Structure formats: structure tokens, C-alpha cells
Amino acid sequence: MALTTPALAQVQLTSTELQALERDLKSYENLLQERNNELEEIKSALGQTESQLQKRIAERDSVSNDLAAKRRERESLIVRMADLDAQREATEVRIAELDERLAQIADRVQDLLLSQYKQRGRRLAASLGASQSFHDLRVRNHYLGLLAEQDADVINELDGVVAEQRSAKAQLETQLAELSAAAAELERAEADLEAAAKRLEQIVAELNATQAGQLIQQQSLLEEQNRIERSLGDLDRQRTNEIARLRAEEERARAAAAQFAQDRDRQLELQRQADAARSRADELAAPLAPLTTGFVRPFDGAKLISRFGEGNNSYLGIQAPVSNAAVRAVQTGRVTAITYLGANLGYMVALQHAGDMVSIYVNLRQPLVEMYATVAQGSVIGYLGGGTLTRPDVLQFYARREASGGSPFIDAAPLLGW
Asked: 6-231 sits in which CATH class?
């Protein structure tokens, strides 16, 4: 016969706590694995970010080198612009000098032209008229030609100065255009390089921020991982301590169970003796009077406390006036089943009656009948109080008809006069 002592029940309850610890430990192990996987992903992402960062830094350094070269080119352009500016100033000075010289020549030319055109006819006629001979005439004509040549030289000098002035002004315009173009090119190059430098600095800043964020996330995950590992260590220690405590408790429970078994055996023997004496006394007592239905109730003063179908029950809950009351057969029948249903429900006895009727009694202690024995109506088949879930003054009474094609159990309340 199986026994369940309070000590063993405590061991079972504590084992449930151990199972909860095992589940928590497994949950933390799974969580730790998830954090390890996330850390690997962060490390991989950090590696990719670092690679991109290095490429962008190399690109930034290259642009910085180009910017330095452009700045050196800018310094060269500034020197060239300064030289062009000096040439421009020299050209402007030269143009000013030419303007002054041109003004002087213009005054001379104007005086010569006026004198030439005013006196040329009189001088020529006087010179020719004063000639004494043909030779003298030729000499005088020669000198007049020289005077004309001197006038032509002045005109030619004027033309040369004007041409030189135009050339100088054209050169000045060219120098100014080159100077403006160089300045514009320098400004454009500086703007482009500064924009590129700012863009690269922004990219590097973003990459640095991304890397910093990932490092922070990695640090957070590492801290959580350490916390989980500490929790796992605590759970593992708790589990070890709980296992040790359960083993000690189990040893104490086994010892208590052995003692309990010895005491229970003595109690059962005494109970059997008492039951036998009670049975003999009950047999001497008058049997229960049959109901109009032909059945008797399982004990005097029976009270119906739960009906068939309540709470999905397939039985009647019948309360006796006292605990551990004697249970009687509701009708003459043959014992077809004696089964121990465990500590929760105790023993079950089934009786086969005439007309395919079967009555079933649950929550009995050790039955007083044997298999296949014929039991008269009203005879004691056992005593209440065999189970721990059902009160010791309550009988679970089932009834069914063997030939029924419907539900295997029927409502026995009308048979028992309820």
C-alpha cells in the first residue's frame, strides 16, 4: 500500500521550487546567449564602421593634401597677381609718360602744321625766286625737302607714340583680365576645397558618432552580460544549495516515512480490529428499511449536498451525520470492483445489481468486502474517510446501467428518494 507523509509532500513541493529554479536558470542561459549574439553583431558592425572610417579618413587626408597644394598654388597666384599688379602699375606709369609725351608732340605738330601751311607757299616762292642759278635752285629745293622731312619725322614720332600707347593700353587690359581671371580661379578653388573639407569633416564626425554610439551600446551589453552572468552564478548557487537541502530533507522524509509506515501499520491493524467489531455490531443492528424505489440510502441521516451534473460531476455528493460513518449497500448485489484510487480519493467499491444496475462508492477506507462476494442490501461495505481531497463524512456515489446506450452514468437521486 502506497503512503504519502507530510514530509514527503514537503519534499515534492520543494522539488517544484527546484524545477522553477531550473527554468529560471535555463531562461537566463538563453538570455545570455542572445546577448552574446548581439555582442558579436555589434563587434561585426564596429569592424565595418572602423573600415569605413579609415577609408573616409584617408579620403579626407587626400583632400587635405589637395587643399594644401591648392593653397600653395594660391600663394603662387598671389605672388603672380602681385607681379601683374606691379607690371600694371609700371604700364600705367608708362602710359602716363606716353600721354604727356604725346601731348607735347601734339603741341609741336599743331605749331608745325600751322607754320607750315601758313608759310609754305611764301617760303617756297621766295626761295625759288632768290635762286641765281639752276644749281642754287636745286640746293634750295633740297633744304626745303629736309624741312619737310623734319616735319614728317615729327608726324612719324607722333604715330609711333600713339601706337605704343595703344599697345601699352592693350597690354594693361590683358594684364588686368589675367589678374581678374587668376583671382576668380583662386576664389573658386578655395571655395571648392573648403566645401570638400567641411563635407569630409562632417562625414568623419558622423562616423565617429556612429562608432561612439556602437561602443556605448557594446558597453551596455557587456554590463548586462556581466549582470546576467552574476545572476546565473547566484541561481547556480541557489540550485546547489536547494539540491543539498532537498537531499537532506529527503533523508529526513524517508526516515519519517519509515516511522510513519510502522505507525500506520499498527494504526491500520487497530482500525481493522475496530472495523471488524463495528461490522459485527452493525450486523446485529436492524437493516435499513427499503425505499419505495426498492433502494436504501447508504447511511442513516444521509444528506444530499451536490447533485448529478453540478460542476460537471457524474456523481451525487452524500454527507453522513458523522465522519468515518459506515457505508451500506443500496441494494443486494455482487462485488465487481475494488480499486485503490490513491491518497486523494481512497478506495472505490462497485456492486452489480439486478436489471443491469451498478452502484459505485468512492472515498472508502479499507473495504470490508471481497471480490465477487454477494452483499445483501443494507450490509456495510466499508467506512468513509479514505481520501484526502474529499471530507471524511462525504461519499461520492455513482450509478450506471450496463445496457444504457447514452451516458455511462445516470442520476441516482430519484432512486435514493431525492
From this structure: mainly alpha
Smallest CA-to-CA distance from 5 within 249, 290, 368 is with: 249
User: Within a 10 A sphere around the Cβ of 266, how many other Cβ atoms?
Assistant: 10
Residues paired with 394 in a beta bridge = 319
Pairwise CA distance, residues 112 & 106, whole Å: 10
**Which residues face 319 on adjacent strands?**
303, 394
The predicted-structure confidence for 208-239, as pLDDT tens digits, reads as follows 777 677 778 778 777 877 777 787 788 778 87
pLDDT band at 3 (very low <50, low <70, confident <90, very high): very low
Indicate the residue type of 321: P
Q: Looking at domain 294-401, what is its CATH homologous superfamily?
A: Glucose Permease (Domain IIA) (2.70.70.10)
Instruction: Report the Cα 106 to chain-centroid distance in Å.
Output: 94
Contacts of 78 (CB under 8 A, 6+ apart): 186
136 vs 70, higher pLDDT: 70
CATH 2.70.70.10 domain range(s) in the chain = 294-401
Global pTM exceeds 0.70: no
The answer to whether 144 and 120 have CB atoms below 8 angstroms apart is no
Give the cell for residue 89: 602699375
Q: Are 123 and 144 in contact (CB under 8 A)?
A: yes
- Of 266, 328, 297, nearest to 413 by C-alpha is 297
Residues 6+ apart with CB under 8 A from 340: 1, 2, 346, 347, 348
Give me the phi and psi of 384, to 5 degrees please: -70, 160
Contacts of 155 (CB under 8 A, 6+ apart): 109
Q: Write out the residue limits of the CATH 1.10.287 domain(s) in the chain.
A: 6-231
pLDDT of 76 over the 90 cut:
no
